[in-house]
């Protein structure tokens, strides 16, 4: 990937049945309104505009929605929130979800953003190329999936975000760190889609590519456990 400069989405099981009607929300949360104002201003800007603040406001609003607000919204307000959260996949029918739409933001970055915006959302699209799940997760249910240790994907995407940080220091710092932490968590996952050989190749590739990083020590320990058959990894597993 030539560089110019995931939730995992937080997915929860569906709505509780019944519930206290007095706890229902009939107003759009302020964080959602703040995101809508910021996004509208960016879309109406006559020239290039930095989209990092827009994206972070959207993430903040999404955290609140996934943290309990979506379940409590009455139906008319829920529909208004979905409209206000343009650029995010928002739903509560089967699962609770409020996550960025990579295609929306990449298009916006190309039309209105800076070089850093375009680079960030190109990296984001590469990570979330199949939708709300990152490329290293094989979704097996509405709410979970195994981690794809295929000998390169995790390491490659870690490199994408490390390269972005080097090319655009100070830009999207929080967002890039979130993606790196998610990949690190995946490297330490106990649920591998494939067999032992793929896991071993992935861990060896990471150590070969990033030998000096603090994460390398944890990966090395994990590789040693795999080789000694003392690892807690479940191979060819299904999410619990």
Compact description:
By secondary structure, the protein is mainly alpha-helical. The protein has nine helices and five strands. The chain folds into two domains: 133 residues, no CATH class; 106 residues, no CATH class.
Structure description:
There is one protein chain. This protein has two domains: 1-133, no CATH class; 135-240, no CATH class. The protein is mainly α. A hairpin with a 3-residue loop joins strand 2 and strand 3 (95-100). The protein has helices spanning 30-44, 52-72, 75-84, 102-112, 115-127, 153-167, 173-187, 196-209, 214-227; strands at 12-13, 88-91, 95-100, 137-139, 145-147. Residues 1-22 have low confidence and may be disordered.
H-E order: EHHHEEHHEEHHHH
Number of strands: 5
Biggest sheet, spatial arrangement of strands: 1-3-2
Number of helices: 9
Rg from C-alpha positions?
19 Å
Structural class: mainly alpha
Q: How does the overall form come out from the CA principal axes?
A: globular
The profile of the biggest β sheet is: 3 strands, antiparallel
Weakly predicted, low-confidence segments = 1-22
Distance between the termini: 35 Å
Whole-number mean pLDDT:
90
The residue fraction in helices comes out at 40-55%
What's the number of structural domains?
Answer: 2
Question: What amount of the residues lies in strands?
Answer: 5-15%
């Amino acid at each position: 990937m030539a560089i110019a400069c995931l939730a995992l989405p937080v997915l929860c099981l569906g709505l509780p049945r019944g519930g206290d009607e007095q706890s229902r929300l009939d107003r759009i949360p302020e964080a959602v309104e703040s995101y809508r104002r910021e996004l509208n201003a960016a879309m109406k800007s006559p020239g290039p505009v930095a989209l990092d603040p827009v994206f972070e406001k959207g993430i903040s609003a999404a955290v609140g929605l996934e943290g309990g607000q979506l379940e409590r919204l009455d139906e008319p307000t829920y529909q208004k929130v979905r409209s206000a959260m343009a650029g995010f996949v928002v739903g509560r029918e089967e699962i609770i979800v409020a996550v960025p739409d990579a295609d929306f933001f990449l298009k916006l970055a190309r039309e209105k953003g800076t070089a850093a915006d375009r680079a960030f959302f190109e990296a984001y699209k590469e990570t979330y190329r199949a939708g709300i799940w990152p490329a290293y997760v094989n979704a097996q249910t509405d709410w979970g999936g195994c981690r794809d240790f295929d000998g390169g994907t995790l390491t490659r995407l870690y490199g994408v975000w490390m390269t972005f940080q080097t090319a655009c220091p100070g830009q999207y710092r929080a967002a890039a760190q979130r993606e790196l932490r998610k990949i690190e968590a995946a490297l330490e996952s106990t649920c591998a889609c494939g067999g032992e050989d793929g896991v071993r190749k992935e861990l060896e590739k990471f150590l070969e590519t990033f030998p000096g990083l603090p994460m390398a020590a944890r990966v090395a320990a994990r590789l040693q456990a795999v080789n000694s058959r003392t690892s807690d990894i479940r191979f060819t597993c299904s999410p619990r």
